[in-house]
Specification:
This protein has 3 helices and 10 strands; from the N terminus they run ααββββββββββα. It is α+β, with helices and mostly antiparallel strands. It has 2 domains: 147 residues, SoxY domain (Immunoglobulin-like, Sandwich), CATH 2.60.40; 34 residues. The strands form 2 sheets. Strands 2, 4, 5, 6, 7, 9 and 10 form a 7-stranded mixed β-sheet that branches. A 3-stranded antiparallel β-sheet has the order 1-3-8, with no helix packed on it. A hairpin with a 5-residue loop joins strand 5 and strand 6.
Length: 189
């Protein structure tokens, strides 16, 4: 089986497991609250990942590793502690204790030229567990969606795009003026 088919199968299984209430019911509630701010990020901007202990999570006995995953196309990529993306499973933070960790805040740099919705998941595994193996999950996963918008600010062809759009706008304005002036002329009979 090719690697891309395997990644696609893993992403499908992971998506189904995350969406399934029955699958989540077997796991304890997440010991942390996972957020990304702002909810809309323009190209070239940085978002902040925030993970805070959940209320009442100190009574959970088992520690965990935290993975932040972007479900990207046929596979998944993992956010590192430095805010970069890795194709290999990398724990965002390892060896955390429920209720016993300080709030975590770190950068998240969306990939260049990415637009649309960016589904992110926080997966809590047993220490040393594998994020893509459902049997290694210690707590219910959490999902957030970040909206990615394009930006012309950093585009090297920005000037060309603005000239083209400006020219098309002037052409449209001229055509509209021509139509209006012809419509006002009296017809000779």
């Amino acid at each position: 089986m090719s690697a891309s088919i395997q990644r696609g199968a893993v992403a499908l299984v992971l998506s189904l497991a995350l969406a399934s209430g029955a699958a989540e019911a077997a796991l304890a509630p997440a010991p942390a609250v996972f957020r990304v701010s702002p909810a809309t990020v323009r190209e070239g901007e940085t978002a902040m990942i925030e993970v805070k202990p959940a209320a009442g999570s100190g009574s959970s006995p088992s520690g965990f590793d935290l993975y932040v995953i972007w479900f990207s196309g046929p596979g998944a990529v993992f956010l590192t502690a430095s805010g970069q993306w890795s194709g290999e499973p990398v724990a965002y933070r390892a060896g955390l204790a429920p209720g016993g960790f300080a709030p975590i805040a770190g950068p998240m740099h969306p990939p260049a030229r990415a637009v649309g919705m960016m589904p992110l998941g926080a997966i809590f595994t047993r220490p040393g567990g594998h994020a893509l193996q459902r049997t290694d999950w210690a707590y219910q996963p959490q999902m957030v969606t970040v909206r990615l918008k394009a930006s012309l600010a950093g585009d090297p062809n920005r000037g060309r795009a603005l000239v083209t759009l400006g020219g098309l706008g002037l052409l449209s304005l001229g055509a509209s003026a021509l139509v209006v002036s012809r419509a006002r002329r009296p017809t000779g009979a």
